[in-house]
């Protein structure tokens, strides 16, 4: 993805985060047709809470997050944080949930990948351009 597209995406997410925060998560539950959740994880280096807004794909009521990192060939920081400390909090549909992140592997990863690309075909373009596997994390109840 070109750097200008990344800049546009960052600007779009910042505006979205402002609307989300000002409305207490009532506005901005969807972006570009995809559902959005707020993830609060613990930074693996800092130990501080790290908050992000991120698209998710629903798998029978369980959100799953796709670690594309906007096409960069390194796992996103939130993936690395959840690998180090899988217990976190997330808000979707206006409610907070305590969650544990479980990374999908093998046939489960492929099943979830098919759901993800059906929901957002852009994910497949990322996979074509990356040399790393794209992690998928399910946000399950502890």
Overall geometry comes to globular
Radius of gyration, in Å, reads: 14 Å
Give me the CATH architecture, please. Roll
CATH H-level homologous superfamily name: Electron Transport, Fmn-binding Protein, Chain A
The top-level CATH class is Mainly Beta
- H-E order: HEEEEEHEEHHE
Q: How far is the first residue's CA from the last residue's CA?
A: 36 Å
- Give me the CATH fold name: Pnp Oxidase, Chain A
- Ranges with pLDDT <50 over ≥5 residues? none
Q: Averaged pLDDT, please?
A: 89
Please provide a brief summary of the model.
By secondary structure, this protein is α+β, with helices and mostly antiparallel strands. The chain is built from 4 helices and 8 strands.
Task: Describe what this molecule looks like in 3D.
Strands 1, 2, 3, 4, 5, 6, 7 and 8 form an 8-stranded antiparallel β-sheet that branches. This protein has helices at 3-22, 77-84, 106-119, 122-129, and strands at residues 30-31, 34-42, 49-55, 57-59, 62-66, 87-92, 95-103, 136-140. The protein is built from 4 helices and 8 strands, in the order αβββββαββααβ. The longest helix is centred in the first third of the chain and has 20 residues, at 3-22. The model has no long low-confidence stretch (mean pLDDT 89).
